[in-house]
Amino acid sequence: MRPLIDGDILLHELGWSGGFKDKETKEVLLMEFDFVADLLDKKLTDICKEVNASESPLIFITNSEWIQEVSHRLIHEVPDYYPLFRHKFAVTKPYKGNRKNPKPFHFANIIVYLDTHYDLVISSDGYEADDELCIMQCSDINDTVICSRDKDLRICPGWHYSWECGNQPSVGPVFTDELGWLELNAKGKVFGYGKKFFYYQLLMGDGADNIPGLPGFGEKTAYKLLKDVGSVEECHKLVKEAYKSKMEDQAKEYFLEQANLLWMLQERGKFYGSKILATETSN
Questions:
Q1: Where are the domains positioned within the chain?
Q2: Which residues are registered as beta bridge partners of 146?
């Protein structure tokens, strides 16, 4: 089993662990990078242990203009940068337009450390790390496990693991088929995997990425609509009907916009309902 690890999450989680705000002076106190590197090594060792890894992990991060600026510090070649393809699909609201996304002090140092000590994959062709993770897993579904705290990746078939972070417990490893399932957790929040979770997100949207979904749908309504559905085709039919009812003549266009923002690529160049290459969307 080879762990496929979401490095975007690690960059921020471990990066912010390298600085602490003094309770009295409110001054930000920075830790030496050796402290952050030790935390990172321990985190990766723990993840590999939890998923019974038999191979070394692959760590994926999203290419960006910022990474291009620090590429001279990296040992391995950095792919050319293309703007994220999802920005082209986002018409209703800017994709991730609600994020300030500041970088922690040791952000670049962590990238260099990962490049030097681990197998690091930097995304290409306007894809995000999430897409590269899903594409890799779909090519070897039984012998890889996606390790991330990002719920969006749970639509990808195969093994999944979420590591513990703060008050959030670890989840898995757990295997999902194409359809997947929805469930309510102890706090009454919807939790899911597979395409059933993808269609749930099509109704709910994703506030973290500024994706609105279908107006007027709440968690409970979306959950009740899809939880007992027994096929991907039926999920598609029900959600499509909901879009038609709400959006009328704009339903198809709006549906495809939301679907391509939420869909995790499972094959290079193959988007939801299209086969447009990511590099072409940047022109």
A1: 2-281
A2: 4, 160
